[in-house]
Design a protein that fits this description.
Length: about 325
């Protein structure tokens, strides 16, 4: 199989490409390698993929929000299916720099839909987010829930992506699967995520900021489980049979929650990191941040029933793996 993966220098993008290459697929990866977080980490991920994939991996540095450049750079490349993971991530940064989200998450999504449409792609898998659930107080979050009240611009752009994809599924019968990710973590993760920040600061002996005074829960999902779900989706396009799909569409368009189906206390996560770092953190307790939510919890019944998705990594297993990787990456004894 020949697959286009966007956001290839990102955490999930690299991990998905790694799995595809390991099973013998050919991968074309695109990324603009921006400086939202350290570029060196992104370059190291790309180097890892180049070493693993050899001539079955091709990387193109391009901004997919620039349609002319994107179309030009992809014209000579062969691929059938698309995994669109590239986006401007982060709830908090969307408050500071909204235009980055409009360009990457809205314009960029339409550009990739157009690429998929004109290529006649057999499946377009794209990243949504658990952030679309906003202030939903019904737990666990279900793909059948209304998601009309986002709490951040980031969440609003992801909801908009789902709506645009539904339109393309209707107008052009483009088979699509949207994935609402729940707090993904693991080796090669993102430096702007809480787990990375806590690990870095605890190892450095610096205080950590704990929001909502620690009264938060998250459905932490280990990267290997996430990748298994993405690849299962890629291999199983939704049929255009007029029957209702997960998320409610009768078009060839599904929506799945992809999480761990466990809502873990933030303070339990911190305790595991402290144990693995061998020191107790100084905690600065703060109120809830703007745009954030208190609890997340994924109802994964739909993807379990349709594709047999079964996450298996608990935080007491996954967090030590991340901390061990972090120490190794930075050469910390």
């Amino acid at each position: 199989m020949e697959v286009l993966v966007t956001g290839i220098a990102g955490f999930i993008g690299m991990s998905v490409a790694e799995r595809l290459l390991a099973r013998g697929d050919r991968v074309v990866g695109i990324d603009n390698v921006n400086d939202y977080y350290t570029v060196q980490l992104k370059r190291d991920r790309l180097a890892r993929l180049a070493q693993l994939g050899g001539d079955r991996f091709r990387f193109i540095e391009v901004d997919f929000a620039n349609m002319a450049a994107l179309d030009h750079m992809l014209a000579p490349k062969k691929f059938d299916r698309i995994i669109h993971l590239g986006a401007q991530a982060g709830v908090r940064y969307s408050i500071e720099n909204p235009h980055a989200y409009v360009q990457s998450n809205l314009v960029g999504h339409v550009n990739l839909l157009e690429i998929a449409r004109h290529r006649g792609s057999s499946h377009f898998v794209y990243a949504s987010s658990s952030s679309v659930y906003g202030g939903n107080e019904t737990l666990p979050f279900s793909v059948a829930d209304r998601v009309d009240h986002p709490l951040s611009l980031y969440a609003a752009t992801k909801k908009a992506d789902e709506l645009m994809s539904e339109t393309y599924a209707h107008l052009f019968r483009l088979p699509q699967t949207g994935l609402r990710f729940f707090t993904v973590y693991g080796p090669w993760g993102r430096p702007d995520m809480a787990m990375w920040i806590f690990t870095r600061k605890i190892l450095a002996g610096e205080p950590i900021e704990v929001f909502n005074h620690g009264d938060m829960r998250r459905d932490f999902t280990y990267i290997d489980d996430i990748v298994s779900g993405i690849v299962a989706c890629l291999d199983n396009p939704p049929p255009d049979d007029g029957q209702p799909k997960a998320g409610g569409s009768t078009k060839p368009h599904r929506l799945y929650n992809i999480g761990n189906h466990r809502s873990e206390r933030l303070m339990d996560l911190i305790a595991i990191i402290e144990s693995e770092c061998g020191r107790t953190a100084e905690k600065i307790m703060l109120p809830m941040q703007a745009g954030d939510v208190k609890d997340t919890f994924a109802d994964i019944d739909a993807i379990q029933q349709d594709l047999g998705y079964q996450p298996s990594t608990r935080i007491d297993v996954g967090v030590p793996r991340f901390v061990a990787w972090y120490k190794s990456y930075y050469g910390i004894d």
